[in-house]
DNA sequence: CGTGTAAGGAATTCTGACACG
DNA sequence: CGTGTAAGGAATTCTGACACG
């Protein structure tokens, strides 16, 4: 995991080129907690391809009139749903192997 | 193909961060025809992840004392070998299906 | 609330050149 | 030949703020 898709290496200018979103909007969505670029040593933002895909989804929601607040909640719910699903899988695995998740790991 | 690995979206500063190579060297390898970044509308270079991997290979060769000239020839030979191999495969496919590569495509 | 814009400073990138070896 | 460096200009990015609605 954490392949090319998730490596944060793209500057905001290129993100703008790729998405058509203004730099203002891109920064604003970060301010609202929808997206989390990393920073270079000297402070310029770095985005990943998956950030770019997320930005496009966000922009589409905004076009439908959804507020950033709502978008954020939706994203958190997706997260929760995914984690629940993973929990179920893990539960099934545990039951199958009749063992704890991390036995005897100090 | 032409997935994330091959999209040219990384500025030279980030390439430097990722490879440790000086910007001077990165530009020089372009000058010698070893690497081919694209440009933004206003002229700044953009590299792909595969460019970065290639740069690392080039740097390793250079450490062994191989000249850029040699490295370039080696790269061209790899290309040729690969194309020959593809040709063989294609020939086998053609023989197998007793057909031309692109029949009746206008 | 979401986005545009003007503002000023700091950091980035570019090219062509000189240096050394 | 391969790489460093200083030079000057142009473009980028950053933050905080005002505007409108």
UniProtKB/TrEMBL annotation, chains A, B:
<dbReference type="Pfam" id="PF13411">
    <property type="entry name" value="MerR_1"/>
</dbReference>
<keyword id="KW-0238">DNA-binding</keyword>
<feature type="domain" description="HTH merR-type">
    <location>
        <begin position="9"/>
        <end position="77"/>
    </location>
</feature>
<keyword id="KW-0805">Transcription regulation</keyword>
<keyword id="KW-0804">Transcription</keyword>
<keyword id="KW-0678">Repressor</keyword>
<dbReference type="InterPro" id="IPR009061">
    <property type="entry name" value="DNA-bd_dom_put_sf"/>
</dbReference>
<feature type="compositionally biased region" description="Polar residues">
    <location>
        <begin position="91"/>
        <end position="106"/>
    </location>
</feature>
<protein>
    <submittedName>
        <fullName>MerR family transcriptional regulator</fullName>
    </submittedName>
</protein>
<dbReference type="InterPro" id="IPR000551">
    <property type="entry name" value="MerR-type_HTH_dom"/>
</dbReference>
<feature type="region of interest" description="Disordered">
    <location>
        <begin position="75"/>
        <end position="106"/>
    </location>
</feature>
<dbReference type="InterPro" id="IPR047057">
    <property type="entry name" value="MerR_fam"/>
</dbReference>
């Amino acid at each position: 995991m954490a392949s090319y898709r998730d490596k944060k290496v793209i500057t905001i200018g290129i993100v703008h080129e790729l998405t058509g979103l203004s730099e203002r909007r891109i920064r604003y969505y970060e301010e609202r907690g929808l997206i989390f670029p990393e920073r270079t040593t000297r402070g310029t933002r770095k985005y990943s391809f998956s950030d770019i895909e997320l930005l496009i989804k966000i922009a589409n929601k905004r076009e439908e009139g959804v507020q950033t607040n709502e978008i954020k909640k939706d994203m958190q719910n997706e997260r929760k749903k995914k984690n629940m699903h993973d929990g179920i899988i893990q539960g099934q695995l545990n039951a199958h192997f009749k063992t704890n998740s991390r036995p005897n790991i100090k």
